[in-house]
Amino acid sequence: MPPNSKFLIHEGAAIFSELLVKNGEFQEERMTQLLLEEPAKHAGCSGSRRLSDNISDLKAQIAANQKGISLIDRLVDEFGLATIMKYMVAIQDNAAETVSRMLARVMEQHGNELESVDYMDDGSRIQLRIFPGQNGKIVFDFTGTSMQSYSNVNAPMAITYSAIIYCLRCLVDETIPLNQGCLRPIEVVIPDSSLLNPDKGCAVVAGNVCTSQVITGVILSAFKASANSQSCCNNFTFGVGGNDENGNYVQGFGYYETIAGGHGAGPTWDGCERCPHKHDKHPDHRCRSF
């Protein structure tokens, strides 16, 4: 996680779409090429510091997915495909209805237009306006957000969607499983080439640990559920190893820790400046104000 990256190539392996398993065989040779060899082709860049850990992680993820497949197969065998599909749809329908009710209450209490803005340390602006749109949907419009940055605080759109679904789940009055249905009642508008929708090749490594927290704070502030804090996870990272100056692979390690970022005050709690960041450490924290 380089703190001074300016382009995506400075941030290690970037895999857009690749077969991890082909014809039942794990593609270890191809993964080694993508994780170790390809990143090292760029001047001043290196491949993975500890390839063996990366390969083990990928195999563990395959095993986890395979376990999920087998468990779903078992459910289908026991209850039938039609029943399983019915409940899968019902879970998403329930989430959509729950979020819709919450949004309706907010609009009734605070008006049909909610706004919030906050800034990154470099002055980049993240602006949000929430208002009723067409077909009964609520629009989350980030127009007015700064253009993409020649730094690594750019955040791919998936980060904004993750922040939105996290906040919606925090704000509802009911305990619901996290699923895509939470996003069904909303429409998201993010300008092209902005900080929250950067062009291909922009550096993004700090988007997940810094910009994501500002987005979350802006959303909760717009809902009048929680004040903003410094909005950063305060990450400490270092490592050794990778490709040396002669291109030889040296096995090393990478260390990464989120120290603290604090959180803003809310209806029933005080702000905190020396505690773990609320949105990073406590995903089930409830921030309701209504």
TrEMBL record:
<dbReference type="GO" id="GO:0005829">
    <property type="term" value="C:cytosol"/>
</dbReference>
<dbReference type="InterPro" id="IPR003692">
    <property type="entry name" value="Hydantoinase_B"/>
</dbReference>
<dbReference type="GO" id="GO:0006749">
    <property type="term" value="P:glutathione metabolic process"/>
</dbReference>
<dbReference type="GO" id="GO:0017168">
    <property type="term" value="F:5-oxoprolinase (ATP-hydrolyzing) activity"/>
</dbReference>
<dbReference type="InterPro" id="IPR045079">
    <property type="entry name" value="Oxoprolinase-like"/>
</dbReference>
<feature type="domain" description="Hydantoinase B/oxoprolinase">
    <location>
        <begin position="1"/>
        <end position="274"/>
    </location>
</feature>
<dbReference type="Pfam" id="PF02538">
    <property type="entry name" value="Hydantoinase_B"/>
</dbReference>
<protein>
    <recommendedName>
        <fullName>Hydantoinase B/oxoprolinase domain-containing protein</fullName>
    </recommendedName>
</protein>
